[in-house]
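Support reply, case 0932

Customer input (verbatim):
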Amino acid sequence: MKIAIIGTGYVGLVSGACFSEFGFHVTCLDNDADKIARLAAGVMPIYEPGLEDLVTRNVDADRLHFSIDIGPAVAAADVVFIAVGTPTRRGDGHADLTYVYAVAEEIASHLRGYTVVITKSTVPVGTGREVSAIIRKANADADFDVASNPEFLREGAAIGDFMRPDRVVVGTEGDRAKDVLRALYRPLFLIETPIMFTGLETSELIKYAGNAFLAVKISYINQMADLCEAVGANVHDVAKGIGLDKRIGSKFLHPGPGYGGSCFPKDTLALVRTAQAHDVRIGIVNEVVAYNDARKQSMSRRVIKALHGEVEGKSIAILGLAFKPETDDMRDSPSLDIIPHLLAAGADIRAYDPKAMEEAKPLLPSSVHFAENAEDCIADADAVVLVTEWNEFRALTPKRYITLLRGSVMVDLRNVYSPEEMTRSGLDYFSIGRPA
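Our regenerated output:
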């Protein structure tokens, strides 16, 4: 079976590498010639643990190819994945489907023989029907089916998620398409992965509903953390106490500065807009969108409060820039709210992230100083703020902070450290939802 994947972003590249690891012949396509040339040379456009080795191994095995020439790859393919971006549309919050529909029109004339066209991009309900209509209009003789196959990849753990998923969801109505998808995911049958077949609309909604639910859990525990601070309770114990209930579960009950990344911000907003377009109220998700935006903006006020309101001229070290560890993704990262607000208050900012420095530089004001390592970032600062919980930051001891800092303020927005140990060392330590 031959696979063509249109789009070499996070989803397309990881999916292409993993399908080739399954033994399929995969061509990943993109209209960015420089990006394709770098990929062919083994240079990854994103940081994802294990991805470079996976790509190199399958390129060397002649199973994985990169190209800008869509026509021949699509004509030879049994399966064509659409894996282009669906960013938030400026002005109204809906998912921008411009790239999805452009790909549908472009591939239509190149389809040869029976082909399954699969939307891997996260798309609102109704997109698959529109993709089918676009292809049919452009090529009335094409023999194809459209399917929806949403991805459930966590940045930083994407390869494991693809190879050992909780489930595979496929939305399609044709028996031929189902047979092709079963063959495509047959390697997962050995580990008894549930393969769920649904209609197109159901599959498209499952992705949004899942991400929105997880966003609700994150915002819920953040609100509980605020309440814990007000009443003197410990949010970690609260999270453990409710997470042990199997109906709730412990995942995504970790307090912090708010969610970011490529999925939750845009997908929750797109779900709200879809519901509004169909005159359906989903007030819970609507509130989560507003609350999360406000929470990220409020984190700088925590830092200012920890410094007793005296920020002018203070040197503040920011540890972590990416929205989460094990990725260089800066999309909707809390650091993009925190740093500009502290700069506006008069602070001098130095920052460090193990992987996201190059991605962060064009997104942050030029006055930010980027350090070479964590210790260089902290040295002689009046305060340090931990924004992203990279493992290398966990190794920094209280004594090391005291030695390096000029001041004594530590604001831990990820609750990495023990309040007792940090306070006992002489640090003015502040965390989320825990008594000092």
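We compared this against your earlier run and they match. Two observations from our side: The chain has two domains: 2-198, 201-436. The mean pLDDT is 96. Please reopen the case if you see a mismatch on your end.
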